[in-house]
Amino acid sequence: MNFRLGVFFLIAALAGAAGLYAINTLVGKDVAPARAARAVLVEVDTVKLGTVRDRIAAVGTTQAIRAVNIVPLVSGRVEEVNFIPGEKVKANAPLVRLNDAVASAQEQETRAEMDRAKFDNDRAKALLNSRGAITKATAEEREAAYLIAKARHEAAVDALDERTVDAPFDGTVGFRNVDVGDYVSAGTVLTTLDDLSVIEVEFSVPEIYYGSVKQGMEVTARTLAFGNTRFRGTISQIDTRIDAVSRSFRIKAEIPNENAEIPTGMFMNVRVTLEQREAIKIPQEALVFQGEETLVYVDKDNVALQRPVTLGSRQRNTVEVTEGLSVGDKVIVKGIQNLRDGAPIRVVTDAPDDAPASTAASSES
Questions:
Q1: Final residue of a domain: which of 257, 276, 295?
Q2: Do 198 and 288 sit in the same domain of this protein?
Q3: Given pLDDT bands bounded at 50, 70 and 90, which one contains residue 31?
Q4: CA–CA distance from 98 to each of 71, 103, 157, 173, 354 (Å)?
Q5: CB 112 within 8 A of CB 211
Q6: Shared domain check, 289 and 252
Q7: How many domains does the chain have?
Q8: pTM, to two decimals
């Protein structure tokens, strides 16, 4: 009986050893592929330097570098309108002429009086100097009469000139508000004149930037009317006062506008470049936030390793990294939602070197 029991246990032990050998053989063959199959598919981007531009964003309104309302200084009936709305005119070009018949007659009358007084004055001086035929007092009276007549003539000339309204500077005229035959009073707006060769953009920024903004700094501006077109200019004026309510201050920037394509009164998005420097930039999609800590995953020999980073300025789809990464590191940018520290990875493809996310050196926001 004991012999049979011993044989049974021996057979059972041999069977167990054979099964264990078979399991170990299968595990040895299949574990490695299974582990490889669990590697997370990711995309990486090689860390490199890019241009970082610290900017202030604001909104502003355009205005002509010079702009006036064209008004007459006197009242009268409109005789001529010598401009077409929207045309460019030169300085001193006559825009509107009022009826000047009376002013013209007064100019001719005073001119004749002046000429006669001048003749009498010249004759008196000659007689006084040559033969002393007249007294010095008489000669002085003739000279005073001439000076009075001359002043009256100059006043008449000014009155005649005021009947014609001229352009004070080179510019573009606006709509005409009068027609020939209209009677206008002094101060009536006949049209407008804008010098659009340079456009000013006025905007406000928070007071914390007061010490950072300087005259001559670069400004870029955009408007919906011109799509993606960027207009470039420079800061020309900085207000010396901070608004007590908004805690902001005003800035004016000048933008060249030689073709007069930007009108006055247009809404614009403005950005001021405060500083430009070389720094490490990575795509924002590579960031992982855990509580108050910001992390990225780096590829180290096909293993994802967490790396804490310190961020700087943000621009569009990229962010500056001031600490935690070095040039040449491979940052995982896609597939991070399935990662954990130390997880095996398999790189599907590298982000191209000219990818917009990592080459912000050539892009602007």
A1: 276
A2: no
A3: very low
A4: 12, 10, 15, 18, 66
A5: no
A6: no
A7: 4
A8: 0.62
